[in-house]
Amino acid sequence: MSARLDRRVTFERQGAGRNALNEPTGAWAPLATLWAARTDLSETERGAAGQIGAVRAARFTLRRSVLTRSLTGADRLRDEGMIWNITGVAARGLWIDVSAVSNGRKEEA
């Protein structure tokens, strides 16, 4: 059974800049825009520091390629204008499953 690749997602990788605390400061740059299938896994609310925030989890399925095999948790993706942080990448035959979470933000804070 093949996945229905019905959406375009853009993968981004952060530039190499670092500050005095060794934190990444480089701008996010597009890596590639690919066809993917999205499966929503859960939506939860969590409280942190007195604030309640919604968290969504999803799995994006893509065709396996050299580029998709190079994706890591340091990368992120955009789907329907939302930013998704990659939490895992797993190969499954001809497919790559990318697990990601989003808090619904549309732009970098």
UniProtKB/TrEMBL annotation:
InterPro entries: Phage_SPP1_head-tail_adaptor, SSP1_head-tail_sf. It holds the Pfam family Phage_HCP. It comes from the Bacteria. NCBIfam families: gp16_SPP1. This is Phage head closure protein. It comes from Rhodovulum sulfidophilum (Rhodobacter sulfidophilus).
